[in-house]
Amino acid sequence: MTISNYLCHVVGEQPQQVARFHPSTVKRIKAFALAIHIPVLMWAVTGYVIASQIFQLNAVQSGVVAFFCAGLIYLVERLVLATPKAWYVNLARVLIGFVIAVLGASTVDLVIFDREVTQQLLQTGEERLRAEHDQLADAQTQRIAQKKADWEKAQEAANCEANGTCGSKLRSVGPVYRELARQANLLRTDYTDAQNQLTQLAAQKAQAIEQFRAAPEVLEKAGLLARVEALHEYTRSNMAAFVAWLMFFALVLFFELMVVLSKLVFGETVDDELDRIR
């Protein structure tokens, strides 16, 4: 069985030496070489997209990030292939591969579900903005109620003084009544001002929401973890989206574990037995 020099170099084997291997060994090397391309290419693409779209890097910087991610994953996968077969080595290999696969699947999901993540970020940002303004409006409503109660109490005291049922017990509009009436008018002014402030808060809320929709800063400030959280919030609120995300996640996870699975599936070949005998 023949194999190209490129595939030999990918897994770190010399083409002259591979040419003398048994066909079963050549078949295994070819499978390893093909499998190692899958996670490397996926990390290169996702690294470039995340660097350019999320971190707003230029094309050159994004290319450097993509090259670094692909190179790092390639070295890790080469290390996985080079480790001998033993139960503890297999366990460590599976754990390392699973961690890399989960990270890779999560980043790929952000690329696949970019529109859903953007929609959830906008919705969450608008809800947070509404909640902040509603909190201010609720506090202002409580102040209005208190100012109204104070005004009504002062006005009642002035009326009581005027008809002589309380206070000085003299039915008149003398200086005592005028002072009480002045205080009631001040409290009424405060109450009216508080109502005007509530109206201004409602206008400010509408203006803030309109500005947010026109130029949402939450998309520029959202980092990797914020986008992952937004994706999970979106899938939690939508069962169909959750099923779709779960299937994509499992598929990408399987692709990321391709090297580990290939290492575990292929057993010893004739050349391995000869090396052990030697």
**Which class do the helix and strand fractions yield?**
mainly alpha
**What portion of residues is helical?**
over 70%
* Uncertain regions spanning at least 5 consecutive residues: none
Mean pLDDT: 79
Number of strands: 0
Please give the alpha-carbon distance between the first and last residues.
24 Å
Topology as a string of helices (H) and strands (E)? HHHHHHHHHHHH
- Helix tally equals 12
Question: How big a fraction of the residues is strand?
Answer: under 5%
In one word, what is the shape?
rod-shaped
Count of domain modules: 2
Describe this structure in words.
The longest helix is centred in the middle third of the chain and has 50 residues, at 114-163. This protein folds into 2 domains: 5-112 and 241-273, no CATH class; 116-237. It has helices at residues 5-10, 15-18, 23-54, 59-82, 87-112, 114-163, 175-214, 217-221, 224-237, 239-256, 258-265, 270-277. It is mainly α. Helix 3 (23-54) packs antiparallel against helix 11 (258-265) and helix 5 (87-112) crosses helix 10. The model has no long low-confidence stretch (mean pLDDT 79). The protein is built from 12 helices and no strands.
